[in-house]
Amino acid sequence: MDNLDAQTHPAFKAAINYLGTRDFFYPGGEKDEHDSRVWGRRETRNRKQLQLWLDIEGNLARWEGEDEPLTASDRRILMTKWVAEAKDIVDRKYFSLWRYFE
Description:
The chain has helices at about 5-10, 10-20, 30-55, 60-65, 70-90, 95-100. It is mainly alpha-helical and about 100 residues long. The chain has a domain at about 30-100. Helix 3 crosses helix 5. The longest helix has 24 residues, at about 30-55. The protein is elongated, with a radius of gyration of 19 Å.
């Protein structure tokens, strides 16, 4: 967390403790750097998820609008799936996330 008034308010801290969650506060001005590292890793992994999907026979043609083109809804569902998979893969690397925090 980044020391916002809402995140340091006693009621918020009590709710966090009630849920059994630990709170970690960043030193001032460092959260943006941490976020950019984590999001950069997730974005890289997201592109890899897209590439893996495109490598499956027939998917590139569908993505480009040939042979059973994807609908806008199909694309949104796929992108949401890739973002979730990328987040899961990056977040499993606990040591890397901890090092970014340090």
